[in-house]
Design brief:
The complex is a heterodimer of chains A (196) and B (269).
Chain A lengths: L2 H7 L2 E6 L3 H8 L10 E6 L8 H7 L6 E3 L11 E3 L5 E5 L3 E5 L11 H12 L3 E5 L8 H9 L3 E5 L8 H9 L4 E3 L1 H10 L5
Parallel strand pairs in A: 1-2, 1-7, 2-4, 3-4, 7-8, 8-9
Antiparallel strand pairs in A: 5-6
Helix pairs in contact in A: 4-5, 5-6
Chain B lengths: L3 H15 L8 H14 L5 H10 L3 H9 L10 H15 L5 E6 L5 H12 L6 E7 L2 H9 L1 E3 L3 H10 L10 E4 L2 E4 L1 H4 L2 E5 L11 E6 L8 H14 E9 L14 E3 L5 E4 L2
Parallel strand pairs in B: 1-2, 1-7, 2-6, 7-8
Antiparallel strand pairs in B: 3-5, 4-5, 8-10, 9-10
Helix pairs in contact in B: 1-3
The chains are: A alpha/beta (196), B alpha/beta (269).
Chain lengths: 196, 269
């Protein structure tokens, strides 16, 4: 069906999550087949700290290039980008990142809604938004924006999430395309990869 | 939701009518700020928002405050201040006179932090801290040196983490919900409006701090501003940026040497 269309269309995948998401990523990242044909952008709620232990932890689990974003870095296919603590992560039309340290949104900075909405503006129907485990309602509004702009939206199956509230909100309040457990999610993300 | 072409109209009005040029601000963030203001002030339509913008000169104050991000704190990123204390300030100590520029100082929390560092190093009396922002409203607040008392616990922790050895509460007096910082800290500060987009270099400095300001600019404007700083930094002077900002994309980079892995660069040529 749409699988081939997905492959050629997908330019960016944004994964957002909060409590309980790191363990999902620790399973997902090693299972991705390099090189990726899209940019993989990860936004996690994390404590306000500038230490780089999270990116180091994730880097242990993948051979793909991964880094914490600095202002105006390019959003290039094949790379994994992690939103830095205490900044909102936005994407510019030129497919590069901008950071923003304005007010928290949904008590969060980075906010998942902010990145989802900004990515939807730039990538439109070439965007896939994925919402993982969490105990906060952040992300749902952003997934709705992605859907409105023609992208695909996915939530982690709540019963497989350490904190089910966040994906549950998305399932209740968005026209979600897919609800996956971690294994299905891995297959799905690999199916988006035109290089695989 | 305000769309891209409408953003252009707003930016055009702000420039034509009021002289504020936001055209080279990072667009994604600026668009979000405009939409946020539009929602907060509950305009029924874009046309009404624009009418207010064009017809109400007082409303512009609110627009400028809404579009610019004024978030700041004292001793923000304490480890950055630790390096200032340990490496940067000692290297300026032998100068007869120390000039520092806080570009985009917002409500002044970082300027007062710097004054505390200089005071503790015994250098405040021979220093001048120029603090500038495009927004006159925030400068008015900065000048007073009065910050919310609820922040003091966090600031005190930041201060200690930055290597501060004194009792932080000795630097202010509590007045109801506010903390007023002691006058001696403000004596060496000069506050003035300065717009990094349109204004020029106005002095030569030993240290320029511009933290979390460049993130709101596009690459073109970043380069312009970095060149302005380059013209304003003396030999062996320092430039300090925000924790996720960089000189890497700039033509001035070869003139500078980065201090460890910190966002502090020293001019070497």
């Amino acid at each position: 069906m749409a699988e081939n269309k997905l492959k050629t269309a997908c330019k960016a995948v944004v994964i957002g999550g909060s409590a309980g998401s790191i363990e999902v990523l620790l399973k997902l990242l090693p299972a991705l087949s390099p090189p990726l044909s899209f940019a993989l952008i990860i936004v996690l709620h994390r404590k306000n700290s500038t230490d780089s232990s999270l990116v180091n932890l994730l880097a242990l689990k993948t051979n793909l290039p991964i880094r914490e974003v600095e202002d105006k870095d390019a959003a290039a296919p094949g790379e994994i980008y992690l939103a830095p603590a205490d900044y909102h992560l936005l994407i510019e039309k030129e497919e590069m990142f901008s950071l923003d340290d304005s007010e928290k949104v949904n008590y969060s900075r980075p906010s998942l809604d902010v990145t989802f909405e900004s990515a939807a503006d730039v990538y439109g129907s070439s965007l896939v938004g994925i919402l993982l485990s969490g105990a906060n309602a952040d992300g749902t509004a952003g997934l709705n924006t992605i859907k409105k702009k023609g992208g695909i939206i996915v939530a982690q199956k709540p019963e497989t999430a350490q904190s089910s509230f966040m994906p549950q909100q998305a399932i209740l309040y968005t026209p979600i395309d897919y609800v996956f457990d971690v294994e299905e999610l891995t297959v799905f993300v690999n199916s988006l990869n035109a290089n695989a | 939701m305000i769309e891209e072409d409408e953003v252009d109209l707003v930016l055009n009005d702000l420039f034509e009518l009021y002289g504020y040029d936001f055209t080279n601000y990072a667009r994604a963030s600026l668009k979000r700020r405009i939409n946020r203001l539009f929602l907060l002030d509950k305009f029924p339509s874009f046309a009404e928002f624009r009418y207010r913008l064009k017809s109400d000169a007082d409303y512009i104050k609110r627009v400028i405050e809404g579009l610019t991000v004024t978030v700041t704190e004292m001793f923000r990123d304490p480890l950055f201040y630790k390096i200032l204390r340990a490496e940067v300030i000692p290297s300026l100590a032998s100068k007869p006179f120390i000039r520092i520029w806080h570009a985009g100082c917002s409500t002044g929390e970082e300027v007062f932090s710097m004054a505390i560092l200089l005071k503790e190093a015994g250098l405040l009396h021979k220093s001048l801290l120029y603090a500038t922002d495009l927004n006159p409203e925030v400068l008015e607040k900065a000048r007073k040196g009065i910050f919310p008392i609820v922040q003091m616990k966090q600031y005190s922790e930041n201060y200690i983490e930055s290597g501060g050895k004194n009792d932080f509460s000795a630097y202010y007096t509590a007045q109801y919900s506010q903390a007023k910082f002691v006058e001696t800290l403000a004596e060496r500060m000069i506050f003035s409006t300065h717009n990094l987009v349109s204004d020029r270099s106005f002095n030569e400095f030993d240290l320029i701090l511009c933290r979390n300001v460049l993130i709101y600019f596009d690459k073109y404007l970043q380069e312009r501003v970095l060149n302005l700083f380059n013209e304003s930094i003396g030999t062996l002077g320092y430039l300090a940026l925000g924790s996720k900002e960089t000189l890497n994309f700039s033509a001035i980079k070869p003139n500078y040497k980065q201090i460890n892995k910190e966002k502090i660069w020293r001019r070497i040529s």
